[in-house]
């Protein structure tokens, strides 16, 4: 059996793969960074990609030399404030905000009998999918609140395979962040990166844009994978 033939399920991140909400995360975190006195930069923004909320806050505090300046309760308050701001920003999402080719790819997967699940660090993934009109494709979503470890640890992708009743080797994970690709690979799943080929070089394959995501393109790429 070929690598392509063993695939039974596809596991998606949301931000940067299904829709571009990364800009909203950055905007909301930027506001928190300003509040705690941490200088904002593109490098800091990139370090937060694919990382869960509390860990992202810790990165911001450490970057500003404020790691010990806040109590646990104060940190939770800051994280909640960020999330409320983020939810305000994503409230205006519509199906027009689905990234190129994604609806067609999801439709093709469904028609060919593949199972699909979501492995996003965001607690707001269900709300985002609802706003985009993609609920029907994803009845199974990993609850990040049940995780003991975030990306780049493999737990979320292992759970995403488990809720589909599939083995990791039967699944493909799709991510746009380095931490996400590391998590997929550590889970023993095939990894597809969306974005810069050099940055995501650890992935099984990389497509520069979601518009290239298709079953024929994936099959073609896997022909070159031993």
Oligomeric state of the chains?
A: single chain
CATH superfamily of the largest domain: HAD superfamily/HAD-like
Number of separate structural domains: 2
Name the helix and strand elements from N-terminus to C-terminus, one letter apiece.
EHHHHHEHHEHEEH
Give the low-pLDDT segments: none
- Largest sheet properties: 5 strands, parallel
Number of helices: 9
Between the first and last Cα atoms, what is the distance in angstroms? Answer: 12 Å
Overall shape: globular
Biggest sheet strand order reads: 2-1-3-4-5
Radius of gyration: 18 Å
Query: What's the level 1 CATH class of the largest domain?
Result: Alpha Beta
User: Structural class, please?
Assistant: alpha/beta
Under CATH, the topology of the largest domain can be stated as Rossmann fold
Count of distinct strands: 5
Helical content class: 40-55%
Range of strand content: 5-15%
Q: Mean of residue pLDDT?
A: 94
**Secondary-structure arrangement, i.e. CATH architecture of the largest domain:** 3-Layer(aba) Sandwich
């Amino acid at each position: 059996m070929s690598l392509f033939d063993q695939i039974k399920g596809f596991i998606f991140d949301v931000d940067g793969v299904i829709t571009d909400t990364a800009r909203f995360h950055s905007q909301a975190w930027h506001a928190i960074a300003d509040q705690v006195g941490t200088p904002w930069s593109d490098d800091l923004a990139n370090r937060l990609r694919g990382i869960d909320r509390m860990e992202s806050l810790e990165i911001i505090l450490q970057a500003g030399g404020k790691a010990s300046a806040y109590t646990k309760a104060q940190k939770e308050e800051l994280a909640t404030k960020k999330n409320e701001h983020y939810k305000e920003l994503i409230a205006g999402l519509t199906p027009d905000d689905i990234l190129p080719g994604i609806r067609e790819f999801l439709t093709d997967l469904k028609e060919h009998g593949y199972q699909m699940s979501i492995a996003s660090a965001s607690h707001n993934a269900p709300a985002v999918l609802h706003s985009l009109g993609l609920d029907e494709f994803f009845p199974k979503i990993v609850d990040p609140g049940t995780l003991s470890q975030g990306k780049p640890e493999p737990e979320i992708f292992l759970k995403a395979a488990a809720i589909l009743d599939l083995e990791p080797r039967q699944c493909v994970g799709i991510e746009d962040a380095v931490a996400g690709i590391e998590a997929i690979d550590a889970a023993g799943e095939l990894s597809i990166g969306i974005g810069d080929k050099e940055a995501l070089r650890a992935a099984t394959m990389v497509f520069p844009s979601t518009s290239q995501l298709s079953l024929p393109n994936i099959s073609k790429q896997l022909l070159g994978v031993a």
